[in-house]
Amino acid sequence: MAYTTINKGSDYFNTKLYTGNDTTNAITGVNFQPDLVWIKGRDSAYNHQLVDIIRGVNKPLRSNLSVAEATLSDSFNSFDSDGFTLGGDAETDNFNNSGQNYVAWNWLGGGTGVSNTDGSITSTVSANTTSGFSIVSWTGNGSNSTIGHGLSTAPKMIILKNRSQDSNWIVYNQNLSSYLWRLNLDSTSAETSTSGSEYWTAYPTSSVFSVGTNFRINGSSDNIIAYCFAEKKGFSKFGSHVGNGSTNGTFIYTGFKPAFFLLKPSSGTGQWFIWDSIRSPINQVQKYLSPEANFAEGDSSGAAVDFVSNGVKIRNSDGGINQNGITYITMAFAEHPLVSSTGTPVTAR
User: Fold this and answer.
1) pTM for the full model?
2) Exposure check for the chain: N or C terminus, fewer CB within 10 A?
């Protein structure tokens, strides 16, 4: 059996850098029509912006804010065959300010959403079973329910937002203490749980994930969106490790050369970090952004990691990324697999 079915990670996930121009701005070079685009201004304190094919254009959500979905005009105008097109009016600073530098992380889904009846609530799903990524939308009912995700394998990470109300982003990760525990994408807080199953009510299965009664995750008559990620050998990895407090930090095995790496302390408070191979094309990788914060891109040896052929090596003892005894969760997507489907090994950076 081949090591992987994905020889080129950029066919399914790609990072694109661009410069704003305050007017119509066609961003090309993504190499596919993205179904989820996550944009962040690198130079200034701009909000993160997430736009997806299910909710439609000009409807961003902000990972650093708990506010409901916005409806704008002339901001994110279209998903295109090789990227996307931005406008020049609403929230220009956050998308397309003239002369400002931006990063856009792009995921390929399944295109236009289809109805999914696997769960007790019918969902609308755009799923790519090859890469293990789906976008799931449904109307909440305020009761314990199951939601079909369309991936044919259990997701290991789910990022969820109530679109209709001001509410925290809710994150499920297989490496938290149990399915009863959660993180908030818009917060530095450690993993938390509630008595009973108010949020997640069971581990995800190959067809559904289970949500509870809390309005943040399943508010009655509210519109909910979830981004679901299943692990695919040679392309994606969702891990957990314990920091050692050393400049010779922990090695996180992924089985591929990373293009994107996310880290968050789960057993203690601390910010989220995102690194990628485009903003930092050589080691050490130390240009980072944080989903819960609007600050400009950081560039610090205190947040340094190395991307190697089969994983990530932590290169600093800083408590934010490598505090001794603290558990961290990670999410990574590949530039290239360690070994291709034809048996060809990848080279290091």
Assistant:
1) 0.96
2) N
